[in-house]
Design a protein that fits this description.
A six-stranded mixed sheet has the order 2-3-1-4-5-6, sandwiched between helices. The longest helix has 27 residues. The protein is α/β, with parallel strands linked by helices and about 325 residues long.
Length: about 325
């Protein structure tokens, strides 16, 4: 996983809802059991077989999940941050609790299997079996909230794209509507949705390309607003996690238009916040949409950026394909500095 970063492969499990589990257990409790004619105490044996089938189902569907799932310490920090952003900080506790309930279910099953074997007649076997079903479902009911939280965690991580942690990664950042997705689409294999509305990009999107014969991952991120980290929503926190834990270099896009969706001041405030989390030497600022502004406005924006940012500043138009490859190439050069 550390090499490929394809975390979705580690979470190819399904977490059933309690209603589904209850329905299946009740089905198994009524399922006919075929036995050879030579079997004695057929009623008792049928209930033993039903206990066994219910236990096998519950163990496979729910209580064996901890053995199939990694602990958070085995995940790359980026994915641990995604769980935190989704308010799922109890992931390890949930996995640990399920392992504990697995032991409880196993002990319950052993105890009731023995009691059914020792039962005097089929009526006692039936009564014990019904008790077992009720208690087994009670154990599952106690895990209900944990299973719902675990399902959320798996859903959050399963939709992440495969990211090769050993390949160069350029993260594209900026406020909504500055042209991030257009840029990523123009320089890589990614095909993000492009829209005139903010927050169209809500997930991390990865495209690939070759720069000087080297494979580069270009990562599109959701837009981040100009506000403190504690006020960012889950979508924005995904972008911040990509900046903190994935980026070998950052391309920060700025829309210089006078009628830009967010003001230049807001964009520069965000740049200042990004620089607090990332080394300036690995950040490139690209003034996008230069086809929409005159030279006077472009000069004003360049001066304003230069007062805050002492690194590389380039100009481009992602829509027109002006200077986009050069921007990405310069970003990969910064990643090697």
């Amino acid at each position: 996983m550390e090499k490929e970063g394809c975390v979705s492969r580690l979470f190819r499990v399904s977490v059933p809802k309690f209603e589904e589990v209850r329905h299946r257990v009740l089905q198994l409790s009524r399922k006919p059991i075929a036995l050879p004619k030579s079997v004695k105490k057929r009623g008792m044996v049928k209930y033993l077989e039903r206990i066994k089938s219910i236990y096998t189902y519950l163990d496979s569907a729910i209580f064996s999940l901890p053995a199939k799932l990694p602990r958070s310490g085995e995940l790359h920090p980026f994915y641990r941050e995604l769980l935190k952003a989704a308010s799922i900080e109890s992931y390890d506790d949930i996995v640990g609790k399920l392992a504990g309930f697995r032991r409880v279910l196993r002990n319950l099953t052993l105890r009731y299997s023995l009691r059914v074997k020792e039962s005097l007649d089929v009526n006692e076997s039936r009564k014990l079996f019904r008790e077992y079903v009720g208690r087994a479902l009670s154990i599952v009911r106690r895990t209900r909230e944990d299973l719902e939280m675990l399902a959320r965690a798996i859903s959050e991580l399963r939709r992440m794209p495969c990211i090769n942690l050993n390949e160069l990664k350029v993260v594209v950042a900026g406020m909504p509507q500055v042209g991030k997705s257009t840029f990523v689409k123009s320089v890589s294999s990614a095909n993000p949705k492009i829209s005139p509305f903010p927050f169209t990009t809500r997930e991390i999107i990865v495209g690939h390309t070759l720069i000087s014969g080297r494979r580069v991952q270009v990562i599109d991120t959701p837009g981040i607003l100009d506000r403190p980290p504690e006020m960012l929503n889950n979508v924005e926190l995904r972008a911040l996690a990509a900046l903190r834990y994935l980026a070998d270099a950052v391309v920060f896009l700025i829309d210089p238009s006078r009628d830009s969706y967010y003001s230049l001041e807001q964009q520069l405030n965000l740049l200042k916040n990004v620089l607090e989390h990332f080394r300036q030497g690995r950040v490139l600022v690209a003034i996008n949409k230069v086809d929409r502004v005159d030279n006077l406005r472009l000069s004003e924006v360049l001066r304003a950026v230069a007062r805050l940012f002492k690194g590389d500043i380039m100009v481009m138009s992602a829509l027109k394909g002006i200077n986009t490859v050069e921007v990405l190439k310069r970003a990969t050069d910064l990643a090697h500095c």
